[in-house]
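How a chain folds remains the central question behind the approach discussed here. No coordinates are needed to read the tokens, only the vocabulary itself. For completeness, the protein is quoted in full, as a sequence line and a line of structure tokens:
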Amino acid sequence: MSRVILGFILGIIVVPAAVFVYLHHGHPPVAVADTPFPMERQIAHSLLNARIDAEMPKGAGVETSEANFIAGAHIYREQCAFCHGLSGQPSMVGGSMFPDAPALWQKHHGNVVGVSDDPPGETYWKVANGIRLTGMPSYKGTLTETEMWQVSVLLAYADKPLPPSVLTLLKQPLNLDAAPIATPPVPTKPAAN
């Protein structure tokens, strides 16, 4: 019995000490090109998914309208496209990140485009809170709640037909030196007499 207790105590002391020494003095995988720890992706995804499932808002914070899609497209171009790419134009840096920044306007898993298979509340949570150690920043201090919802709802509809004015914004090449793109007019219905 005393051997079991001694083994247990040594395990409690030796294993954490060995992990500390390795992380502090060894060569843990911290560079993007390094091989990840065993099960690193699975553990990180399960923790992230559990947190999002517990905290994400249910439903969308804005209506699905052409005006909100256009506003979301402008926000996307200004804040997201550099890492996540545009329609038909993958990001030049997104694949160099760890983990890769997902291409939000490309198909994957059949006909799913970007995160269109996620509820808007999940995307909103990611936009608002960011994701540690991925390069995904929190936009709480940068965008308003309405702006975060506009881009989240736009991305939820990435696999559905979008108005031509929105597609025009999402297909124009990203030019970081250019002035902001003017907002195309939103068609209005004639007033009833």
